[in-house]
Design goal:
The structure holds three protein chains of three kinds. Chain A is mainly alpha-helical. Chain A has one domain: Up-down Bundle (Fumarate Reductase Cytochrome B subunit). Chain A has 13 helices and two strands, in the order H-H-H-H-E-E-H-H-H-H-H-H-H-H-H. A two-stranded antiparallel ribbon of chain A has the order 1-2. By secondary structure, chain B is mostly helical. Chain B has a two-stranded antiparallel ribbon. Chain C is globular, with a radius of gyration of 23 Å. Classes of the chains: A mainly alpha, B mainly alpha, C mainly alpha. Chains in contact: A-B, A-C.
């Protein structure tokens, strides 16, 4: 049901620009207004969300330690999984953000007869996540060829590496395949694993299907149903020069692609996709475990009622004296 | 503990990266591609017509060339029959560049605009540029 | 208490979630799966709201009239105070990597014991009341309204989490369910929905200085018994001091260590060690508790109970503090104490008077973990040890959740163990160090009425012990946590009855060669050091 709904939403989102372009001639709306609005919502929304998080302080230093602490000099500290200083934290965060260190630890627990619990390593989720995120990033960067004139050398290099197999014309990009395969895996996994399916919401299926739609329209445009790529670049260059104009005959497939991307950008700040920013702010990962070395300040630390020693002694003085415990007041 | 300094720095970097295309385009002329047909051979043609229709060539020239390469190199076929029934030799240098003898003004116009890097010259020898004078 | 629980039934676990959506599945308070509510007198003693007599099985929980406002305002306050809470509410992608990392899910199969769903219990309310998307899209976005059933669900599941942080190790964003559970319990505290197993110790600790409510004169008596036992077994007479001003070091340990078997043997280890070193230290009857059940109630309660330690150190004029073997105690000491009740500028940076080692890693908090202290002694050859006295023991080590995942104190206890005994075997990699499994009874769950949940939740730990028992003949499970020593004992009796539980310093006590000791023929428990001939060493 949830799945179906997410699917229908993506279908409708694909149909909207198609109808708009084909039957209402709304190429300016879909080619200029929508992308501008989406980028604005994305940037403002993203900043808003981060600022909203940042307004709440981190009152306590609560890293999850995943290795040996820094203690006696002869005990080897695990500096990356239990950092005690800035460089270690930077390293830990880099591993986390770039290589999904924590997800890499993933295991699969199985209950066998006996009873015997077995913990198999389970790398598929990590692999799909890595393939998905890195492909997405590389594809995004590759698109810079449509956003720059002249195209920087680094983009050339990236394109050559990505297309090094030189299969087909135009050259097949490995990331195109990886992205679609990874999204498909993540999607199937969501349906096939009963527990994951049980926790999945429409807002979990939707981004996967949306991104699949974006990837699919992109691949269709590049390899199967050509659109006027010169026109696309003219449109994009007009947009970024703030002199928007929509060339004729780009092809409605492009507008579907563009509209789905715009949807993703506009949806991003209001969804779980904000994990992109949030991972940097996770207090269990971005803090050094130097708790007993450096005092952490809680900005809202307030005085509390405590049971003072004086009150304690007042209640128990006689009993204390009876067993010879020293007291403050006789 | 708010770490506002680090967060603001991070946000500036983020916004900078997202808006990079805008900054990158500042002060750069946006020259649109303009493939030229101004070559001696084309200028002499009464009816200026490629081997297939213009739209077909725009959309499919890369696949056509790829098919030609495979046909010539692998299957030893050298003759292409166009949709209008004309015969052409499948040859980049002898057929395509016979007319389009201006790579820089023709091929590269679009290719460099959208950053396409065909690997024709990894095997072929680049013919000399021939551009018609005048016009 | 475990008699009625059949292992065969317990291990028939159905991991398949029900057809019905979790939001439509109400909670069922079944005997053995929930803790009795906190008595009114304990709430009153701690000035907590809504003291009353009630039961979770009642239809009416006698919540305050404006309970909804209390919860929503309480959530808002905490979202503004804790970035962790706010970020964790927002960024979960429900990838499910945490699901089979929770011992309660592994041992029980209840889908709401998957960390992700435990968090959704509160996240759904957050979405429905604090986010635009949730307000507009409602259930499509995983949002729901706040009802009394939600409160019941929270009570049930936030007291089926031991705040062990294992899920947080595997979460790609480090989402820490302990943090979520702590928020959930704080919110429940605002309505007076606490459990007695947590609040009674907290109230006791507030009044008498320790969880067990031991008054100063009784505490002294208990130590007399321990000292008699030490003398009986070693021939060495020890005279520790209490509440002594001017001592160099204050020693604080969980009260369970001097109260009950098998903790007392660890406590005897401390006493013997400090005596042998001639350490200038004192115990305190006022700060007679290292543990802190405030951690299982609210941040404010942590601070209220923890304040004693620094206050007493200041009153007695000691230079620094050593803390005993305990899990959650060290989460509080390491991650909260200095921030809450510091700065401890009236103390000095700890230096071992025996070895001269500066404990650089404790220079601000000024409190050193006993295994750091002892490991340093052994490294510097300050102890005379005879590991063969532990030869009848085949030992494995259980990393307690908090020392492992909130400190990373992994090698110190291992170093000590390897120096005081000859037969040490590690449990499998996925069940040790940062991946260690909870005893099933932490965070205030270690009570008899929770027996089913405890035996289920402790099953992964017990299973790993079973593995080394079968493979290496392990018969002793060492740990450095007072709750562990109590809960693992029950757990082992149920799952792996041949294995007994012990503290690290109990092993030290056995191996420690003391000046003036008599020939040691019994261990610190009073059992023969050597197995009688003919008896198989299991």
């Amino acid at each position: 049901m949830k799945l179906l709904l997410a699917f229908v939403i993506v279908l409708v989102l694909s149909a909207v620009p198609y109808i708009g372009i084909k039957y209402a001639g709304m190429s300016y709306e879909f080619g200029v207004i929508v992308p501008y609005a989406a980028v604005a919502v994305f940037i403002l929304g993203f900043v808003y969300r981060i600022v909203k998080w940042a307004k709440s302080p981190v009152p306590f230093r609560i890293p999850t330690t995943c290795g040996q602490e820094k203690s006696l000099p002869w005990i080897k500290q695990n500096k990356l999984d239990n950092p005690s200083g800035t460089s270690g934290v930077v390293g830990r965060m880099a591993l986390e953000v770039l290589f999904f260190r924590s997800l890499f630890r993933n295991t699969k627990t199985e209950l066998k007869d006996g009873p015997k619990l077995a913990y198999g390593s389970s790398g598929w989720l990590w692999l799909a996540a890595i393939a998905f995120h890195w492909s997405f990033l590389i594809i995004l960067i590759r698109h810079f060829r449509l956003f720059s004139q002249p195209v920087p050398y680094l983009i050339n290099l990236l394109e050559n590496v990505d297309g090094f197999l030189q299969i087909g014309i135009p050259t097949l990009y490995i990331t195109d395949i990886l992205l679609l395969a990874a999204v498909l895996y993540l999607f199937i996994r969501r349906i096939a694993i009963p527990q994951v399916r049980y926790i999945s919401l429409v807002s979990d299926y939707f981004p996967l299907l949306l991104i699949f739609g974006i990837g699919l329209t992109g691949v269709l445009m590049r390899y199967f149903y050509r659109v006027n790529v010169i026109g696309v670049k003219e449109l994009v260059m007009g947009l970024i020069a703030l002199k928007p104009a929509v060339p004729a005959d780009i092809g409605s497939l492009f507008f579907i692609h563009l509209f789905l991307i715009s949807t993703l950008f506009a949806y991003f700040p209001f969804s779980k996709l904000m994990h992109m920013g949030g991972v940097f702010l996770s207090p269990t990962r971005n803090l050094a475990n130097n708790n007993r070395m450096v005092r952490h300040i809680n900005p809202w630390n307030y005085p509390v009622h405590v049971h003072t020693y004086a009150e304690y002694e007042d209640e128990f003085r006689d009993k204390m004296k009876s067993v010879g415990l020293p007291v403050e007041k006789e | 503990m708010y770490n506002s300094g680090k967060i603001i720095t991070g946000l500036i970097i983020f916004v900078g990266l997202v808006t990079l295309p805008f900054w990158y385009s500042i002060g750069k002329a946006n020259i649109k591609p303009d493939p030229s047909l101004n070559t001696p051979v084309i200028n002499q043609m009464k009816v200026k017509h490629c081997i297939e229709s213009k739209q077909f060539m725009i959309d499919n020239h890369m696949e056509l060339l790829n098919e030609w390469r495979n046909a010539v190199v692998r299957d030893n076929k050298t003759i292409y029959v166009s949709t209008t029934g004309q015969y052409f030799t499948m040859s980049l240098e002898d057929t395509c560049f016979h007319c389009h003898s201006n790579e820089k003004q023709f091929c590269n116009q679009c290719h460099s605009y959208v950053n396409i890097q065909p690997y024709c010259w990894e095997c072929h020898v680049k013919p000399a540029e021939e551009i018609a004078n005048g016009h | 208490m475990t008699d009625e629980l059949k292992q065969d039934d317990l291990v028939k676990i159905n991991y398949k979630p029900p057809k019905k959506d979790w939001m439509d599945t109400p909670v069922n308070f079944r005997h053995g799966t929930y803790i009795y509510p906190a008595r009114a007198k304990n709430l009153k003693y701690l000035d907590l709201p809504n003291p009353r007599e009630w039961s979770p099985t009642d239809e009416d929980w006698k919540l305050p009239e404006n309970w909804k406002d209390i919860i929503l305002n309480g959530m808002k306050e905490r979202l503004d105070k804790y970035r962790s809470f706010k970020v964790f509410m927002d960024i979960c992608v429900r990838c499910g990597a945490c699901a089979d990392k929770c011992h309660f899910f592994i041992g029980g199969g209840d889908p709401k014991n998957m960390p992700v769903l435990r968090a959704e219990l509160i996240r759904s309310i957050y979405k429905g009341n604090f986010t635009a998307a949730g307000k507009i899209l409602g259930r499509l976005n995983g949002a729901r309204g706040l009802t009394k059933d939600v409160i019941k669900e929270w009570f049930y599941y936030f007291y089926q989490c031991t705040e062990c942080r294992r899920c947080s190790v595997f979460c790609p964003y480090g989402i820490d369910t302990a943090e979520i559970t702590m928020m959930g319990r704080e919110l429940l505290t605002l309505l007076g929905c606490n459990v007695n197993w947590v609040l009674e110790p907290a109230a006791n600790c507030y009044r008498t200085g320790n969880h067990l409510g031991i008054q100063p004169h009784a505490l002294k008596d208990m130590f007399e018994m321990l000292l008699d036992d030490i003398e009986d077994r070693t021939g060495v007479k020890i005279e520790p001091t209490f509440n002594r001003k001017g001592a160099e070091i204050l020693f604080v340990t969980p009260s369970a260590d001097y109260f009950a078997d098998p903790g007392i043997y660890t406590c005897m280890g401390y006493l013997m060690l400090f005596h042998e070193l001639g350490l200038d230290y004192t115990w305190s009857t006022y700060a007679s508790e290292g543990g802190n059940f405030g951690l299982f109630t609210s941040h404010e309660m942590i601070k209220r109970l923890n304040a004693k330690i620094y206050a007493e150190a200041k009153r007695l004029g000691v230079k620094w503090i050593i803390g005993g073997e305990c899990g959650h105690m060290w989460r509080v000491i390491h991650q909260y104490m200095d921030t809450m009740n510091g700065p401890a500028d009236f103390l000095e940076a700890p230096v071992s008077p025996i070895t001269g080692t500066k404990f650089e890693n404790a220079k601000s908090t000024k409190m050193v973990h006993i295994t750091e202290f002892t490991a340093d002694l052994i490294k510097n050859n300050k102890l005379k040890l005879d590991p063969s006295r532990n030869d009848k023991l085949r030992i494995t080590f259980h990393d307690s959740c908090n020392p492992a995942r909130a400190m990373g104190i992994l090698e110190e206890p291992r170093y000590i163990i390897k120096n005081v005994c000859n037969n040490f075997f590690e449990m499998p990699e996925n069940t040790a160090r940062e991946q260690t499994f909870c005893c099933g009874g932490g965070a205030g769950l270690g009570t008899d009425e929770m027996m089913e949940i405890r035996m289920r939740g402790g099953m992964p730990r017990a299973n790993a012990v079973q593995y080394v028992h079968d493979k290496h003949g392990v018969n002793r499970l060492t740990c450095m946590c007072a709750i562990d020593r109590a809960t693992l004992t029950t757990l082992m009796e149920y799952w792996v009855p041949d294995v007994k539980v012990t503290g690290v310093h109990e092993l030290v006590a056995n191996a420690l060669v003391m000046k003036g000791e008599k020939e040691r023929i019994v261990d610190i428990r009073g059992e023969p050091l050597k197995e009688k001939k003919g008896e198989d060493d299991v």
